[in-house]
Amino acid sequence: MIELIDLTKKFKQNFAVKNLNMFIEKGEIVGLLGPNGAGKSTAISMLSSLVEPTSGDVQFENKSILKNPSSFRKIVGMVPQEIALYEDLTAEENLQFFGRIYQLRGKKLSKKVDEVLEQIGLTDRRKDIVKKFSGGMKRRLNIGVAMLHDPEMLIMDEPTVGIDPQSRNYILDTVKRLNAERQMTVLYTSHYMEEVEFLCDRIYIMDKGNLIAAGTKEEIKQIISSEKTVSIKAEILKHDFIQALEENPLINRVTVGEKEVTILVPKDANVFSEVIKLAETNGMELTSVDNKTPTLEDVFLHLTGRALRD
Amino acid sequence: MIGILIAKFKNFIRNPWTFLIFTGMSLLMAFIFGGTNAQEVYIPISTVDKQIKDSYIGEQLEKEEGINFSWMSEEQLREKIETGKAELGVVLDNNTYQIIVGIDSHNTGLVEQIISRIYYEKQEQEKILTIVGQDETVIEELNHALEQPVFEIESATFRGEGAFIYDNSLHRIFGFSLFFVIYTIAYNVLPILIEKRGGIWDRLILSPVKKSEMYIANLLFSFLTGYFQVLVIFFFFRFVIGVNFYGRFVETILLLIPYVFAIVALAILVTALVKKVQQFNAVLPILAISMAMIGGAYWPIEIVESKILLLLAKINPLTYGLEILKGITVYSYSLQELLLPISILVLMGVVMMGLGIHFMERRHI
């Protein structure tokens, strides 16, 4: 359906996106995962024909959308990272405005507004001014606006940033429902790996403008099939203990959190006794040592040496 | 496009504070600095005989336009002149008058001319009445003839090239209106930047609405709010305060259009050049105040001697806006005589709007 071919965007001497190759098939939910500043927003701005790439092409049904974006724009709904709404208007007035922009009029417009308000769970708050809404409600309305013209594809740029878990779950369920009921294609960008893991069929991982991994969840996790992740927790992490872990030849990578150290070790290595010994030597009391099922976070850690939210 | 305009007006009704604040500021400043009757010359007047006030002389003085004759005692009159609150005063007697001059100005001659004319007319009437006696029909016909003379006489003045007329009241109204409307217009163009940063603009680009419609709707709205603000100010001074705009009120409000257009264009250029709202908020007051100072909104540009300032004034839309408004009212210029400043404003508007939209579009396809 859509293909990004060697897509590159350069700002002065810096590459925001470098030689990005992606494809999205009709009806699938594709995740674009990466930390802040990875180039996700620039990539989807180019994909949605809002930003001109420095080089490369975006093709929709084998035709370049850069030269003639109108046919693609008709089928796409954009959910920007920002709250792209008129805050002094009510939820209903916002939907009516954007509906009119998409040439909906009269009863058709009213019906569509009612339908969208129902889908995003804001029917009871339709007459309320948007600036009085909570962050989660604004995000829901932000999504609702993109659905007014029944797009075949929804491009969502970090749609859950800064909202409560309840609203986040509502949004994720809505995306799942739209995909299941209407076969809506979704491109979902996020730096929350658990969201992407929950929603997406296929995943692209970006870092510093480059695509560093792509495939299904299982395929991506296979990248670290030769390694396993061990989580070590303690109330107080001593510097000498961490240094000892880093110097240990069995351990491939050490990532330090507040009260947790994550280590990557070869799959068949038994590091439990080694870790406990090092803790005792450095006078440190551990609260737990666990083998973890690999996550996309671990893959990112493996590939870049950094956590997704660094 | 209509949809965008409707949304803009709904937003405006819900949040009219920028408009109200700058309209209020314009009214207040023009009112304070321009004075309510500053067009009139204030002349204190007293009488030896109290009946004079109700006689022909008193009636004629009341009818006089341009000079505000204020009745008071001779003692108060002298005090006003001594304290500098009045340039001069007039003490009236039945057949003579006395002009007491504090500051010798061209108003002295003007007042003397008016008073002597009224006394002359009074004497003429008295002579006629002496001849015809107390014949009421003749008196009635005489009054009728005086009110509707056979010949209508129009008088005009001429002035030398380079001389300028300063009407404080109108200058303040025009100056403050043209100055404060810069803010109103600019803050109505600013949402383009906010909407671009906030993603609304992107949503509109992806919709079937043409980009030209998006710009036209936004700029038309900014133009209308700016124009409406100046209209409110001018209507207030015309119909509430009674400033007569030299009888050319309609022409004045029509010839505002090129200035408002040029300011909309300037605002879009500034909006295109800044990257953040904070930068816009920093740049706008500097620009507006500089334009007002250089363009002659605060004081007449005719008194400025610095060649650099005069040169800068030539690239300032406010200079031409004031030139048009003063030209149509104070100088009674014809449209033809004002074609040059009108053309310059239109040209400035076209160039700045072209550049502004070009810079804004650099990021987008």
Automatic annotation (TrEMBL), chain A:
Q: A Pfam family for this UniProt protein?
A: DrrA1-3_C
Record keyword Nucleotide-binding present: yes
Q: Which GO terms describe its molecular function?
A: ATP binding; ATP hydrolysis activity
Q: Does the keyword ATP-binding apply?
A: yes
The residues covered by the ABC transporter domain are: 2-233
Show the InterPro entries listed in the entry.
AAA+_ATPase, ABC_transporter-like_ATP-bd, ABC_transporter-like_CS, DrrA1/2-like_C, P-loop_NTPase
Question: Keywords on this record?
Answer: ATP-binding, Nucleotide-binding, Transport
Source taxon at top rank: Bacteria
Write down what this protein is called: ABC transporter ATP-binding protein
Q: Which organism is it from?
A: Ornithinibacillus halotolerans
UniProtKB/TrEMBL annotation, chain B:
Which Pfam families has this protein been placed in? ABC2_membrane_3 (PF12698)
* Localization per record: Cell membrane
Q: Which UniProt keywords apply?
A: Cell membrane, Membrane, Transmembrane, Transmembrane helix, Transport
Transmembrane feature ranges: 173-194, 215-241, 253-274, 281-301, 338-360
Protein name, per record: Transport permease YfiN
Report membrane topology.
Multi-pass membrane protein
InterPro entries assigned: ABC-2_transporter_component, ABC2_TM, ABC2_TM_bact-type
Q: Which residues form the ABC transmembrane type-2 domain?
A: 135-363
Which molecular function terms from Gene Ontology are attached? ABC-type transporter activity
List the lineage, top down. Answer: Bacteria, Bacillati, Bacillota, Bacilli, Bacillales
For this record, the Gene Ontology CC terms, alphabetical, are: plasma membrane
Protein family = Belongs to the ABC-2 integral membrane protein family.
